[in-house]
């Protein structure tokens, strides 16, 4: 899997279209090795993580770098996503609480689903901040599937 | 954002002609949905059968599209592909909208 990690290391400017570009490049290399449903859900979780970096870590910057590193071991696919934007508030990951959907139509939430999705889809998430770099490790369970 | 519309006697069908409703598209989608639904029939069915990816911003844009409808108008969703369907179920948005497997199902087989 060492080769795999090297191939997938990439940087891209932090914009919403940059998110698309990062995802397209990651998925182009992963999707042929993954069941479609698994690939689709990993893409959703990565999209949320990268959009969060664009919207929050780099909120006050026109561009910033996002690096994605991938490894695979023991039925897990592990992504390390790093940026040098601002840290999470309190250097703690959001809980991803379920928004109140029982509200009236006018009061229904139009956001707040990102961390709910990430936490629903990932097996493990770990965040660290050191030397001005945010580092998020996210592991996905591949079940019976083994990466080639 | 490419949206096309057609009407039956009681329903406006809005078809999303793109594969992704994501953060890069969300605001545009909401605005285009306003144009596509304003002064339309009371029932709007959004045909998502060409969409294979949605993120939380896209989901929020669909909620916003529903909230900006006029009083008495309602929004149903049809043709969710597996990835889109999963996102709706994980966020429990399947409890907010009526989801139909296909556009034909949404139109009652008519």
Which tags fit this structure?
heterodimer; A: 148 residues; alpha+beta; 5-stranded antiparallel sheet; 25% strand; globular; disordered N terminus; B: 110 residues; alpha/beta; 5-stranded mixed sheet; two-stranded parallel sheet; 4 helices; 7 strands; 34% helix
Descriptive account of the structure:
The complex is a heterodimer of chains A (148) and B (110). By secondary structure, chain A is α+β, with helices and mostly antiparallel strands. Chain A is 34% helix and 25% strand. Chain A contains four helices and five strands. Chain A has helices at 2-7, 16-30, 36-57, 114-121, and strands spanning 10-13, 65-73, 76-83, 124-130, 133-141. In chain A, strands 1-2-3-5-4 form a five-stranded antiparallel beta sheet. Chain A is globular, with a radius of gyration of 16 Å. Chain B has 110 residues and is of the alpha/beta class. Chain B is built from four helices and seven strands. The model of chain B has no long low-confidence stretch (mean pLDDT 95). Chain B starts with a strand and ends with a helix. Chain B has helices spanning 26-37, 56-67, 82-90, 103-106, and strands at 3-7, 11-16, 20-21, 43-47, 53-54, 74-78, 99-100. Chain B has a five-stranded mixed beta sheet with strand order 1-2-4-6-7. A two-stranded parallel sheet of chain B has the order 3-5. Chain A binds chain B through residues 16-17, 19-20, 36-37, 40-41, 43-44, 47-48, 51, 54-55, 98, 101, 105-106, 108-114, 116-117, 120-121, and chain B through 20, 22-24, 52-57, 59-61, 63-64, 66-67, 82-83, 86-87, 90-93, 95-96.
């Amino acid at each position: 899997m060492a080769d795999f990690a090297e191939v997938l290391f990439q940087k891209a400017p932090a914009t919403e279209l940059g998110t698309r570009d990062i995802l397209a490049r990651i998925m182009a290399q992963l999707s042929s090795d993954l069941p479609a449903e698994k690939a689709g859900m990993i893409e959703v979780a990565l999209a949320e993580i990268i959009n969060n970096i664009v919207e929050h870590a780099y909120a006050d910057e026109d561009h910033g770098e996002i690096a994605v590193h991938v490894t695979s071991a023991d039925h897990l696919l592990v992504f390390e996503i790093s940026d040098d934007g601002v840290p999470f508030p309190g250097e703690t990951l959001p809980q991803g609480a379920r928004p109140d959907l029982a509200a009236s139509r006018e009061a229904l939430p139009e956001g707040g689903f990102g961390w709910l999705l990430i936490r629903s889809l990932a097996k493990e998430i770990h965040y660290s901040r050191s030397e001005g770099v945010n580092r998020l490790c996210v592991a996905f369970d591949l079940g019976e599937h083994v990466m080639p | 954002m490419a949206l096309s519309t057609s009407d039956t006697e009681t329903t406006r069908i809005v078809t999303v002609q793109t594969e992704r409703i994501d953060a890069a598209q969300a605001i545009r989608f909401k605005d285009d949905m306003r144009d596509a639904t304003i002064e339309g029939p009371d029932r709007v069915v959004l045909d998502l059968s060409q969409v294979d990816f949605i993120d939380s911003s896209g989901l929020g844009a669909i909620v916003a599209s529903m909230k900006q409808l006029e009083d008495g108008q309602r929004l149903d969703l049809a043709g969710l592909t597996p990835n889109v369907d999963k996102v709706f179920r994980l966020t429990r948005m399947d409890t907010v909208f009526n989801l139909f497997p296909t556009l034909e199902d949404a139109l009652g087989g008519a």
